[in-house]
TrEMBL record:
Coiled coil residues, start to end: none
Any Pfam family hit: Cys_Met_Meta_PP
Residue spans crossing the bilayer: none
Domain of life: Bacteria
Database matches in InterPro entries: Cys/Met-Metab_PyrdxlP-dep_enz, PyrdxlP-dep_Trfase, PyrdxlP-dep_Trfase_major, PyrdxlP-dep_Trfase_small
Protein name from the UniProt record: PLP-dependent transferase
Family affiliation: Belongs to the trans-sulfuration enzymes family.
SUPFAM superfamilies noted in UniProt: PLP-dependent transferases
Keyword Transferase: yes
Lineage: Bacteria, Bacillati, Actinomycetota, Actinomycetes, Micrococcales
Species the sequence originates in: Myceligenerans indicum
Length: 398
């Protein structure tokens, strides 16, 4: 166990998760971070306000009182500070959702005259759809991690990869990809792994993106998105957020900051359950294939991710959608990362927005099921999966 007591950078991720964004509370005479609900911030010095507004419109944030809630919020700042510390980033910028965060990154690169994106499939279905649609003025080349460097053009402004991938859990070597694609920045969607298990910036990525709705919140009751990156790029993202208004609600910022405190312990417990369920599913007669990082000694990027994570994907030897209706304990719903286990059929829900050819190109078969493992007892989860699989296979329920 890490017992460092020095600077925050030397402390373990579990310690930093508890204390990040809270270092000033004792001096303020507070224990819980305050919730700031202000939409506007009064000041009698109009000239000073004008100067600060100029700074905000340039994406600068000195940490002082905001002018207006679309520019900044003190509660959201605490979450941003904490997430940046966990990811090892200079800064992070929070948004109303993960898709708002990705949209801001795309707008920033398009406005810089670099509209081409190289996207490594598979990605979250709506991310794939946004990149493919060109709605924000971008063009996209979809490819594999291996072929990504050869897809780069003079106008390429971004390489996007999700590792582990949604929904197949395939892993890409971040350092190898970043080195091969340099100087084009690599964005890693770190939603599945979280900084509790993986820190992409330490492996050469320029930025990480989270659907904070998932593991960062952890309880299925808050929506948000966040990008961790350099302070220079954060300024551009703040400019985009300021003019588009995709701000994170203060209540959500409060909940997400609180969610970070238990993130490492939740990820450890949920990952342990997922690894055990993956092992058992691999031996089930109604399961054709299981996708889980490292299962069966499968090769993995060295020193990149600690553990296999809390997501499991498997292909049913039968009617995959029917399995969703057969579970009794596991929640049949889209999304992931909650304390309760969630199960869904990607081709029908999370990746349905992609056409069938795109799903096939991304390696997402119709038989695939995605399971987000929660904090329930693994024996109870297994009993539910086993009875559902047997029902789909036409065997009597036990």
């Amino acid at each position: 166990m890490d017992t460092h007591t020095g600077s925050s950078a030397e402390r373990s991720v579990a310690t930093r998760a508890v204390h990040a964004g809270r270092d000033d509370l004792t001096d303020l005479g507070l224990h819980a971070p305050p919730l700031d609900l202000s939409t506007t911030y009064p000041s009698r010095d109009a000239k000073a306000e004008a100067a600060r507004l100029d700074a905000f419109t340039e994406g600068k944030d000195d940490g002082g009182p905001p002018i207006y809630a679309r520019a900044a919020n003190t509660t959201v700042r605490r979450f941003e500070q904490a997430l940046a510390e966990l990811e090892g980033a200079e800064a992070s910028v929070a948004f109303a959702s993960g898709m708002a965060a990705l949209s801001a990154v795309l707008l920033a690169r398009v406005s810089a005259g670099l509209p081409h994106v190289v996207a490594v499939r598979p990605l979250y279905g709506t991310s794939d759809h946004l990149l493919d649609s060109g709605l924000l003025g971008n063009t996209t080349t979809f490819t594999s991690a291996k072929e990504a460097p050869s897809a780069i053009r003079e106008d390429t402004g971004l390489v996007v990869v999700e590792t582990p991938a949604n929904p197949t859990l395939g892993e890409a070597g971040i350092q190898e990809l970043a080195d091969a694609c340099a100087p084009v920045p690599v964005l890693v969607d770190n939603t599945f792994a979280t900084p509790a298990l993986q820190r992409p910036l330490a492996h050469g990525a320029a930025m990480t993106l989270h659907s904070a709705t998932k593991y960062l919140g952890g309880h299925g009751d808050v929506m948000g998105g966040v990008v961790a990156c350099s302070e220079e790029f954060a300024r551009t993202l703040r400019q985009v957020r300021f003019v588009t208004g995709g701000v994170l609600d203060p209540h959500a910022g409060y909940q997400l900051h609180r969610g970070l405190t238990t993130l490492p312990v939740r990820m450890r417990a949920q990952s342990a359950g997922a690894a055990e369920l993956a092992r058992r599913l691999a031996g089930h007669p109604a399961v054709a294939r299981v996708h889980y990082p490292g299962l069966g000694g499968a090769p993995r990027p060295a020193d990149q991710m600690t553990g296999g994570g809390a997501m499991v994907a498997f292909e049913v030897a039968g009617d995959a959608p029917a399995l969703i209706g057969a579970v009794r304990l596991i929640t049949p719903a889209v999304s992931l990362g909650s304390v309760d286990s969630l199960i869904q059929h990607p081709a029908s829900i999370s990746h349905h927005i992609m056409d069938a050819d795109s799903r096939a190109d991304a390696g997402i078969p119709e038989e695939l099921i995605r399971l987000s493992v929660g904090l329930e007892d693994v024996e109870d989860l297994w009993a539910d999966l086993d009875q559902a699989l047997r029902a789909v296979a036409g065997e009597p329920r036990r």
